[in-house]
Write the C-alpha cells for this entry.
Amino acid sequence: MKRLISTFAFAGAFGLCAVGAQAATLDQVKSKGFIQCGVSQGLPGFSNPNDKGEWTGLDVDFCRAVAAAVLGDASKVKFTPLSAKDRFTALQSGDIDILSRNTTWTISRDTSLGLNFTGVTYYDGQGFLIRKDKNVNSALELSGASVCTQTGTTTEQNVADFFRANKMEYEVIAFATADETIKAYDSGRCDVYTTDRSGLAAERLKLTNPDDHIVLSEIISKEPLGPVVRHGDDQWFDIVKWTLFAQVNGEELGITSKNADEMLKSENPEVKRIVGTEGKFGEGLGIGNDWAFQILKQVGNYGEMYDRNVGPDTPLKLARGTNALWTKGGLQYAPPIR
Amino acid sequence: MSLTFDDGTFIRSELVTPLPPPKRNIGAVAWMRENLFSGVLNTLLTLFGIALLVLVVPPVVRFLFIDAVWEGQNREACLGPEVGACWPFIKAKFSQLIYGFYPADQRWRVDIVFALGAVLLVPLMVLDWPMKRLNSFLFFAVYPVVAFVLLTGGNIDLSNFMLGHAGVIPFMSGTDTVMGLNPGFWLDYVLTALVFCAIAGGILALLGGNAMSAARGVGMFFVGLGIIILMWDFDFGLQKVETRSWGGLLVTLVIAVTGIVTSMPLGILLALGRRSHMPIVRLLSVIFIEFWRGVPLITVLFFATYMLPLFLPSGVNPDGLLRALVGVALFSAAYMAEVIRGGLQAIPKGQYEGAMSMGLGWWQMMRLIILPQALTLVIPGIVNSFISLFKDTTLVLIVSIFDFLGQLRAAFTDPNWATPVTLYTGFAFAGIIYFLFCFGMSRYSLFVERRLNTSHRH
C-alpha cells in the first residue's frame, strides 16, 4: 500500500460529490453481464498479470468470487488496473463496481471518502527486513539503524512513530519507488528495509541472496486490507461482504472447489445452508440461492485462495499467521450463514 | 631515363615519381593527431572518452550477452551470484509487451493491422515511389477505418447512436438490424443526404454559383461518411475486443500514430489561424494553443479519464482509450501549431507579396507557396515533436492504460519472475525498443531534409 498522502487530499475533495448518484450496482452488473473490478497496476501475489496475460492474485480471485456469486460465472470480471492515487476516484465515478486493491481500512477512508469497506481479505502489518549477520533479533535492538523506506507513504510515518515511542535513534533513507528502495537495501546503503510484510516477502525475492535476510517478528502497524464499495448501496455492500464470509465459512466447514459437488449431498445442516440445499439465503441478497456454492466451486474457499496466491507453495511463501481461521489461532472469522 | 646531350644539357623526359607524403600526414596516425589529439584540451577529452567507454561498454556487453541467461521457465533460472540479463523473462512476457491483454486467439488481427501499416507506410516514405496520391489516400483514409474495425471488432452500432441524435425523419427507422445494419437508418440516411444536397445546391443557385458542383460536393461527403458508418456497423463476425484489454506496444503505437497524424493538420490550421488577420479566428486559435500549452499532459489525461464522467450525464461514457487519444491529439496539436508558426514567420514577406501579385487567393498562396517552404524549414522541429510525443505516450499509465512501459512494469510484479536482474533486463529491453523507434524517426527526418535540401547554402 503506497498510500500517498496526497491521495487523501485529492480523493477527499472529490469524494463527497459523487456519492449516491449511481443506480443500484447489482442491477447494473446484471444488465451489463460482468463486474468491473479495480485492482492494482501490479502487486505480487495480490494482483499481477501472469505469463499468459491473465490477472492473478488474492485481490483478483476475490473479484472472481463476487462474479461467481452474482452472475454464476467467475470469469465474468473485467479488471481496471489503478494506481494508488486514482483508485478512490475510479470507484466514486462509477468506473468500477468493486475496488479490490489491497487498500487499508482506516476510519478516514471509511467515513469521509464515501466508501464502505466490506471486510478484511488480508491482515497485513508493517515489518522489518534485516541481514542475518547483523545479529538483531528484535526490532527494539534497532537503535541507531538506518532505515530504507519509500517516500510519502504511511510506512515512513509508522517508522517515525515506532522509533519515537521506543526512544530510539534512527536515520531514514527514503526513495521514490519500491524498486529503488530494495536495490539500495541490497547494496548495503541501509541496515533495515521496512514496508508491509506482504511487500517484504515480495521484495525479498529481488535480493541477491534472499536467504541472508530475515524478517523480524515485530509488526509495527495494523494494515487490514479489504475490498471497498461505494457508500449508499447497501444491497451491493451486503453481497460483497457475504462473499468473503462465505469463503471463510467454507474453509471452516472444509468445503473446497474440489469437493463442492459432493458437499451438495451432505447432511450437515451448516453445509446444507451454505451450498444452498437448505434455506433461501441468496434471495435476501438479491441473487441466486446457489451463490455460495458457486463461489466455493469456481474460486474456492478462503484458504485455497490464500495458498494459491501468496501461500507457502508460491514464491512469496507467506505463512498464514494472523490470516489463519479463528479456530486455528488467526483472525479470519465470519458470521454464520443461517 | 634521362637524355644527356653532349653539351651537358640535361633534359628530364618524364616526371620524377612523387615521394609519399610524410608519414605524419596520412593514415590512421595523422587522422588521430588531427581529430583526437590536436591540443591539450582535446587530448584530455579523448582520454576521458576512452576511459568512459572502457568503463561502460564491457560491463554492459557482459550483462546483456555474456553472463545473460537465455533459457528458463521461471525465476529459478535467473538466480545466482553472477547472472546477467534474464532474457527468458522477456520471452515469457513478450506477447504481453506487444499486445497487452488482447485475447490470445484474436491477436492475428493486431498482426494484420501492423503488417498493413508497414506495407502502406514504407512506399509512402520512399520519396521516389510512384502513386503517392493513391498511397496517401489508402494510408490516411482507408487504413484508419480498417484498423479500427480489425482492432475493436467493428459492429459498434453507430447508426443507432446517430439516429438518436440526428436524421431528418427518425420516425421511419425501426431498430431491427440485418448483419449489424439497420435498413431503416440507411433509408433515412439516403433521404437526409438528398435533402442536404438539395439545400446546398439551392443556396448556391440563389447566390449564382454552380449548384451542381455544390450538390456533388455535399453528396461526396455523405457517401464518404456513409462508407465509414457502413464499415463500422457491418457485422464482420469479429469478436468484440474492448480497448481496456489493449496494451503494450499496440497501445503505444495507436496513441503515437493517432497523435502524429491528427496533430499535423490540426497544427497547420491553428498556426494559420494564429497568424490570420481575422480577429475572432486569431483569438480562438491563441486561446486554444495557450490553453493546451499551459496545462500539463498528465492533468489533461487525468481530467479526461476520471473527472469527465462526473460531469457527463449517466450512460454517456466515451471509451477510455478514446478519451486519452483525443487529449493527446489536441495537446500535441497545440505544440505543433507553434512549431509551424515558427516556419511561417521565417518566410520572407516577399514570398507573400509575390504570391499575391500572381493573383493567387489566400488558400492557394498558403498551399502552393508558403506552406511547402515553411514546413520543410521546420522539419527538425516537427520531428522533435513527434519523438517527444512518442515518448510521452508512456504517461497514459497514470490513467490505467497499459502502454509498452506500463505492461513492462506490470510484468515486473509477477512473483514468478522476481529476481535481482529482472528490472535491469526489462528496462534494457524497453530502452532498445524505444531507441529503435526514435532513432528511426530521427534518421528518416535527416534523410528527408537532405532530399529537400532545406539547409539552403546561402
Summary: Chain B touches chain A through 39 residues (CB under 8 Å).
